[in-house]
């Protein structure tokens, strides 16, 4: 079995800015810089024998290159308890189209169960159960004006994920260029 997801990689300058938001919040487990990304579609565990079919289906996804902007912060809750801090990714028609075409490509090879509601974001931290809601609110207030310069997205990546004691390890398995991106070629493991 192999655990897979499709995501947008972020350049090191943007990752540095996002990492700088971290700290000063007891009960937050910050995502390592190398793991910061925008998930387009979590696929989950599939047989390794499915990899080539998935990669072939994704290679048929054709969407134009686009600009992506990260601006603002927020959090997810479960049972009225904050669970995750994230940086907001501004939605664009091109990004939604990319998400939808990835979803369609995966359905064609028998991968169902995608996100019903696509909310693009960069996960910054996972929160302990007993974290103070006031501290979370203070973090959100202090960082509400965060805004990074737009970045050009010229490809998306199929990653594998191996869960370990110190968190997941991600590996780029295949890269798929977007239309209009120069000098990029698909590279499936």
Give a written overview of the molecule:
- By secondary structure, the protein is of the alpha+beta class.
- It has one domain (2-177): Alpha-Beta Complex (Cyclic Phosphodiesterase, Chain: A).
- Helix content is 23%, strand content 37%.
- It is built from four helices and ten strands; from the N terminus they run βαββαβββαβαβββ.
- The strands form three sheets. The chain has a four-stranded antiparallel beta sheet.
- β5 and β6 (81-89) form a beta hairpin.
- The chain is globular and about 45 Å long.
- Mean pLDDT is 92; it is low at 183-189.
How far from one another are the termini?
16 Å
| DSSP strand tally | 10
Q: Look up the CATH topology.
A: Cyclic Phosphodiesterase, Chain: A
What percent of the residues sit in helical stretches (DSSP H or I)?
A: 10-25%
Give the name of the CATH architecture. Answer: Alpha-Beta Complex
Assign the CATH superfamily: Cyclic phosphodiesterase
Can you write the helix and strand succession as a string? EHEEHEEEHEHEEE
Q: Report the uncertain regions.
A: 183-189
Mean pLDDT: 92
Structural class: alpha+beta
CATH class: Alpha Beta
Domain tally: 1
Q: How many helices in DSSP terms?
A: 4
Strand content: 35-45%
The spatial strand order of the largest sheet comes to: 3-1-9-10
User: Based on CA inertia axes, which overall geometry fits?
Assistant: globular
Q: Sketch the major β-sheet.
A: 4 strands, antiparallel
